[in-house]
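Design a sequence for this backbone.
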């Protein structure tokens, strides 16, 4: 019972901190506000997290887990790997839009509070694998390098995060879907090329 209650409290603190880190950044996040949002005492916070940096790491771990769940649902190489990759990019944009933990992780990486690249490392291997599969099937235009499209995905998703920080109500998922539709026309090998 105590262990279950401790897990619930830790989860509430992590969720509250994620929202604050996403909105205010690391320096602007007050532990008192986190406690108030989580409806726990400062003593409970310090029991679970000895330092603000530990709380930031817990938020990052939650973000990586959420991202991993989205990646695990991706279609992979079955069917159309380029469509699967584009779909995953849009799903990741949707995750950015709805997950304070993911937005917080991206911001904490930008602020160099946590090691950079952790969020990207959670999804990049799947994107690369889909693109390699497309390359093997000759679905990818010969002039396009896999690494170029991986970098494009990173830039587009980072841009999505920046836009969502500035305008939280922006429909970045729809915007990204339109961008990927244009990108697909440029990177997909024509049927005649097969």
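Sequence:
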């Amino acid at each position: 019972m105590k262990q279950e209650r401790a897990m619930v409290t830790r989860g509430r603190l992590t969720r509250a901190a994620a929202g604050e880190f996403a909105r205010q950044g690391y320096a602007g996040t007050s532990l008192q506000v986190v406690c108030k949002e989580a409806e726990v005492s400062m003593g409970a916070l310090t029991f679970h997290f000895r330092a603000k940096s530990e709380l930031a790491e817990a938020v990052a771990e939650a973000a990586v887990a959420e991202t991993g769940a989205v990646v695990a649902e991706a279609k992979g190489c079955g069917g159309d790997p380029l469509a699967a990759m584009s779909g995953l990019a849009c799903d990741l944009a949707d995750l950015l839009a709805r997950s304070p933990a993911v937005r917080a992780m991206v911001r904490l990486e930008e602020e160099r509070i946590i090691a950079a690249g952790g969020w990207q490392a959670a999804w990049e291997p799947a994107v690369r694998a889909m693109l390699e599969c497309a390359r093997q099937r000759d679905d990818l235009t010969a002039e396009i390098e896999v690494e170029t499209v991986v970098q494009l995905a990173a830039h587009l998703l980072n841009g999505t995060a920046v836009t969502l920080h500035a305008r939280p109500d922006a429909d970045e998922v729809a915007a990204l879907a339109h961008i990927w539709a244009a990108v697909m026309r440029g990177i997909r090998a024509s049927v005649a090329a097969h």
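The chain has one domain: 57-193.
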